[in-house]
Design goal:
With 379 residues, this protein is of the alpha/beta class. The protein has 13 helices and 13 strands. Helix 9 packs across helix 10 (301-329) and helix 11 (336-343) packs across helix 12. The longest helix has 29 residues, at 301-329.
């Protein structure tokens, strides 16, 4: 019996080591897809572009990736069909399982992305952690931009999305985040924007930048949140991890800069018998002073209290800008309707069929409580 067990183990080990085992493929038989761009094609078709890493091999062993990538592009009546038809242009089998970034064109997203998300799910190889972006204009153009020290666009996009933790200019969004929100319908979704910008020093050098969010009503793109609106949304939804805040000081309009080190949001919805909704949003933010340009300012408890009041007003304005945007576009990105559903289901049953009309009439009461923990100055 022991001999049989050891024989079975030996066979398994050999199959892992020997790439010639049945059902496996050599690396030189594969094209590894790292990023995809989805644009509108001709006559209502979908255009799919895949960014593929060039591989060099020596005999049967891989030597590694080159500094460049190449692209394959094809059109189909659906995203699934386009992905399958791409094989006719490829001399190797396409491996989609390493795709770590998906970029939709804004024009395509305005027509709806639900069918394409379903097609991606049916490809099965795609990871739930794949990052999702939207680009105004042609999505494929973003894949052609060469970022410094990065040979593959997906690596650059992942690094840029992680920067949102400290800048509050964007928010990391994965494929499963978008898919689940569309299925559950608890709130309207947002997807980060990616754009091409010129370097401030070398104007000829083009870079990718993630700043701002695209807002969706259902699966249709309806609007764009600029920097202040994005910060207001991230604060109100409790998704802000870090940011910088500035307020004016002194007669020369000099600036004070603060680092936001903690943010907490508490939302209290309430509906009366006339179906009038009032939503109270309480924000608790802890900040540190990082830059003081007002040379004659004396730092004491009175001055710090004045700074906190100014920060309360500044943050309230950011959140109010987001609220006005959401009302104008009738997008419930905070999930207020779901909160009412859970807290006051009796009233929600009367409101849910016309929530799109009720939402713009919701009254928001924003209360911000900032606390400056450290001034980082001895004077």
């Amino acid at each position: 019996m022991k001999a049989r067990k050891w024989f079975a183990v030996a066979v398994i080990v050999v199959c892992f080591i020997n790439t010639g085992c049945k059902g496996s493929m050599e690396l030189n038989e594969l094209h590894i897809v790292h990023s995809i761009a989805i644009d509108k094609g001709e006559n209502g078709a979908v255009r799919l572009t895949a960014e593929i890493a060039r591989l060099t091999t020596g005999g049967q062993q891989p030597k590694g990736m080159q500094e460049r990538t190449f692209f394959l592009s094809t059109e189909g009546r659906s995203l699934f069909e386009a992905a399958r038809l791409m094989r006719s242009k490829s001399d190797r089998t396409l491996l989609w399982g390493h795709t770590s970034a998906i970029i939709f064109s804004a024009d395509l997203a305005r027509s709806g992305i639900d069918k394409m998300l379903e097609d991606i799910r049916r490809l099965r190889q795609f990871r739930n952690s794949t990052l999702v972006y939207v680009k105004e204009g042609t999505a494929f153009e973003a894949l052609k931009v060469s970022m410094p020290n990065v040979s593959i666009s997906s690596q650059a996009l992942r690094g840029l999305s992680e920067g949102g933790n400290t800048t509050a200019l964007t928010h990391k969004t994965t494929f499963i985040d978008v898919y689940q929100e569309l299925i559950n319908q608890y709130k309207d979704i947002s997807i980060p924007s990616v754009e091409i910008v010129s370097d401030q020093v070398d104007k000829k050098l083009q870079l990718l930048q993630t700043k701002g969010l695209f807002a969706f009503k259902g699966d249709h793109l309806v609007g764009f949140l600029h920097v202040q609106e994005t910060k207001g949304f991230l604060r109100a939804s409790g998704q802000m991890n870090g940011s910088s805040e500035t307020i004016g000081c002194g007669r020369k309009k000099e600036m004070l800069t603060f680092e936001n080190i903690n943010n907490r949001s508490v939302i209290h919805p309430n509906v009366d018998q006339q179906l009038k909704a009032i939503v109270k949003i309480e924000i608790y933010a802890d900040l540190n002073l990082t830059s003081l340009q007002c040379a004659d300012t004396k730092i004491d408890s009175k001055e710090v209290a004045a700074w906190e009041r100014a920060l309360n007003e500044s943050i309230t304005q950011e959140i109010d800008r987001f609220i006005q945007f959401s009302k104008k576009n009738k997008v419930d990105m905070l999930g207020i309707g779901e909160m009412i559903h859970r807290k006051q289901p009796k009233y929600w049953r009367k409101m849910k069929d016309n929530w799109e009309e009720y939402y713009p009439e919701v009254k928001f009461d924003i209360q911000v409580h900032t606390r400056i923990d450290h001034t980082n100055f001895t004077s």
